[in-house]
Amino acid sequence: MSEQTETTTTVLPLEIIDKCIGSQIHVIMSSQDKEFVGKLVGFDDFVNMVLEDVTEYASNGEKVTTRSKMLLNGNHIAMLVPGGAGPQ
Amino acid sequence: MNLRVGSPLISYLIAAYVPGQTGKSLKEKRFSGYGRSANFLSGITNSAVVVKLHSGITYKGTLQSIDGYMNIVLEGRDVQECVGKDSKVVNSFKNDVFIRGNNVLYIGID
């Protein structure tokens, strides 16, 4: 894996996400009815994610709930915004 | 039991949590976050969790088991089915509840 990244100049999309680990990330779901903002702890090839101190927003930007820790299913994720502060 | 099905991350988390399951999957760290997430399952197993489905229905209960497909078993006794923003309880179950993974949006600490 590390050899591969050294010999190629392209940056894989998931490598960008890998760099966000430990920092804030804004997650937008594909049905556009939910958004999440929290600290990215880990993720995999399916973009399932472990998040910490998460705030869940409805489509109108209204806060729904907060969770201290969650495992988010990657199936319906549309977009990730590294460092994004949320819908407001 | 084949633990290496579905999500690599969840398989890793299971291997990190279940005693004796220190096989291949613990070595296969594709991304740097795997190690940081390793205590996730120990943090939520046998504690109060909330499982939200894509449909918006929320199940609150005690996590008994999870697999790489995000299939989830909540322990019987007091599993509550909640709907809406105010989490109104519409149903409760005395037996174990199995939730098929494809419906799960997230599982988190209650």
TrEMBL record, chain A:
<dbReference type="GO" id="GO:0005681">
    <property type="term" value="C:spliceosomal complex"/>
</dbReference>
<dbReference type="InterPro" id="IPR001163">
    <property type="entry name" value="Sm_dom_euk/arc"/>
</dbReference>
<dbReference type="InterPro" id="IPR010920">
    <property type="entry name" value="LSM_dom_sf"/>
</dbReference>
<dbReference type="GO" id="GO:0006364">
    <property type="term" value="P:rRNA processing"/>
</dbReference>
<keyword id="KW-0687">Ribonucleoprotein</keyword>
<keyword id="KW-0747">Spliceosome</keyword>
<keyword id="KW-0007">Acetylation</keyword>
<dbReference type="InterPro" id="IPR047575">
    <property type="entry name" value="Sm"/>
</dbReference>
<feature type="domain" description="Sm">
    <location>
        <begin position="12"/>
        <end position="86"/>
    </location>
</feature>
<protein>
    <recommendedName>
        <fullName>LSM complex subunit LSM5</fullName>
    </recommendedName>
</protein>
<dbReference type="GO" id="GO:0003723">
    <property type="term" value="F:RNA binding"/>
</dbReference>
<dbReference type="GO" id="GO:0000932">
    <property type="term" value="C:P-body"/>
</dbReference>
<dbReference type="GO" id="GO:0005730">
    <property type="term" value="C:nucleolus"/>
</dbReference>
<comment type="similarity">
    <text>Belongs to the snRNP Sm proteins family.</text>
</comment>
<dbReference type="GO" id="GO:0005732">
    <property type="term" value="C:sno(s)RNA-containing ribonucleoprotein complex"/>
</dbReference>
<keyword id="KW-0539">Nucleus</keyword>
<dbReference type="GO" id="GO:1990726">
    <property type="term" value="C:Lsm1-7-Pat1 complex"/>
</dbReference>
<comment type="subunit">
    <text>LSm subunits form a heteromer with a doughnut shape.</text>
</comment>
<keyword id="KW-0694">RNA-binding</keyword>
<keyword id="KW-0508">mRNA splicing</keyword>
<comment type="function">
    <text>Plays a role in U6 snRNP assembly and function. Binds to the 3' end of U6 snRNA.</text>
</comment>
<dbReference type="Pfam" id="PF01423">
    <property type="entry name" value="LSM"/>
</dbReference>
Automatic annotation (TrEMBL), chain B:
<dbReference type="InterPro" id="IPR001163">
    <property type="entry name" value="Sm_dom_euk/arc"/>
</dbReference>
<dbReference type="GO" id="GO:0003723">
    <property type="term" value="F:RNA binding"/>
</dbReference>
<protein>
    <recommendedName>
        <fullName>Sm domain-containing protein</fullName>
    </recommendedName>
</protein>
<keyword id="KW-0819">tRNA processing</keyword>
<dbReference type="GO" id="GO:0046540">
    <property type="term" value="C:U4/U6 x U5 tri-snRNP complex"/>
</dbReference>
<keyword id="KW-0747">Spliceosome</keyword>
<comment type="similarity">
    <text>Belongs to the snRNP Sm proteins family. SmF/LSm6 subfamily.</text>
</comment>
<dbReference type="GO" id="GO:0000932">
    <property type="term" value="C:P-body"/>
</dbReference>
<keyword id="KW-0539">Nucleus</keyword>
<dbReference type="GO" id="GO:0000398">
    <property type="term" value="P:mRNA splicing, via spliceosome"/>
</dbReference>
<dbReference type="GO" id="GO:0030490">
    <property type="term" value="P:maturation of SSU-rRNA"/>
</dbReference>
<dbReference type="GO" id="GO:0005681">
    <property type="term" value="C:spliceosomal complex"/>
</dbReference>
<keyword id="KW-0507">mRNA processing</keyword>
<keyword id="KW-0698">rRNA processing</keyword>
<feature type="domain" description="Sm">
    <location>
        <begin position="36"/>
        <end position="110"/>
    </location>
</feature>
<dbReference type="GO" id="GO:0005688">
    <property type="term" value="C:U6 snRNP"/>
</dbReference>
<keyword id="KW-0687">Ribonucleoprotein</keyword>
<dbReference type="GO" id="GO:0008033">
    <property type="term" value="P:tRNA processing"/>
</dbReference>
<dbReference type="GO" id="GO:0005730">
    <property type="term" value="C:nucleolus"/>
</dbReference>
<dbReference type="InterPro" id="IPR047575">
    <property type="entry name" value="Sm"/>
</dbReference>
<keyword id="KW-0963">Cytoplasm</keyword>
<keyword id="KW-0508">mRNA splicing</keyword>
